[in-house]
Amino acid sequence: MMDSSFRAQILGFSNLEEIDGAWVSEDYSALLESMEFGDQAGLEKTELRDMCIMSLQDLEPEEAAYLVLNYRLGDVLRDGQIHNAAHEMLDEKLWEEYVDPKLHESMFNVGSLLFQAFPRLFPEPDAVQVKLEVTAANAASKALLFTPLDESFLLRLLADGMDGQSVLYRLYGEQLQGKSFPNAEDIVWIVRTQVVNEDTMQIEVIGSGYWLDALRHSKSFNSAAYADETQSALS
């Protein structure tokens, strides 16, 4: 079986205080209702956002954190867990530190909105957006690149552009080099792709800076990334 081989070039690296589309008009409206805002008729999206932030500012910071967490994660966490998280959010980046990594993306979006309302009280959000162009060097690579991209493949690809002492290698070295990377989907939050030509794909990845900051100074690199065996078998 032919080994996969890729050439990757970093097109852009930027920090994000918020993820576009994470909060929409319906979310702001629902939060305003929970704060008993009153009539929202005629309010545009930007006005809903502004009113939501202003209404959150009328609450105590921990109370605001509880309200937003309960809205976003009330169907996942128990009430006591939400109260604890609301308290911890004042000092901790729960999108990096919360015990369940599956909730990190949601924790980031909660923290992002709270930071807009209380920029001096909540930690500054620090997600990372990486844009890269990836070219397949052979048929096996092309087959892998032009199927729905699996997070395990993407992280192995990105890791090849990082120093071996990066956080990703230190904490997940065995999964990166093994047959299965079950935590990959918790680290990669958002993936967007665009075909450039028959061999090349442009990929955008959004995740926590905790994992992706190691790519900040990378320009281009070679990779032999592969997907988990179960994913490869299904593709």
Description:
With 235 residues, this protein is an alpha+beta fold. It folds into 2 domains: 6-16 and 126-234, no CATH class; 25-117, no CATH class. The chain has helices spanning 25-34, 45-57, 61-73, 79-88, 94-97, 104-117, 139-145, 151-159, 167-177, 184-187, 209-212, 229-234, and strands at 6-16, 127-136, 188-195, 200-208, 220-223. It has a 5-stranded antiparallel sheet. A hairpin with a 4-residue loop joins strand 3 and strand 4. Residues 231-235 have low confidence and may be disordered.
Order of helices and strands: EHHHHHHEHHHHEEHEH
Q: Describe the main β-sheet briefly.
A: 5 strands, antiparallel
Apparent shape: elongated
**Share of helical residues:** 40-55%
What would the average pLDDT be, to the nearest integer? 93
Pairing-aware structural class of the strands and helices? alpha+beta
Number of strands: 5
Descriptive terms for the model:
five-stranded antiparallel beta sheet; 12 helices; 5 strands; 235 residues; elongated; disordered C terminus; 45% helix
Quick take:
By secondary structure, the protein is an alpha+beta fold.
Task: Describe the secondary-structure layout.
Layout: E1 6-16, H1 25-34, H2 45-57, H3 61-73, H4 79-88, H5 94-97, H6 104-117, E2 127-136, H7 139-145, H8 151-159, H9 167-177, H10 184-187, E3 188-195, E4 200-208, H11 209-212, E5 220-223, H12 229-234
Antiparallel strand pairs: 1-2, 1-5, 2-4, 3-4
Helix pairs in contact: 1-2, 2-6, 3-4, 3-6, 8-9
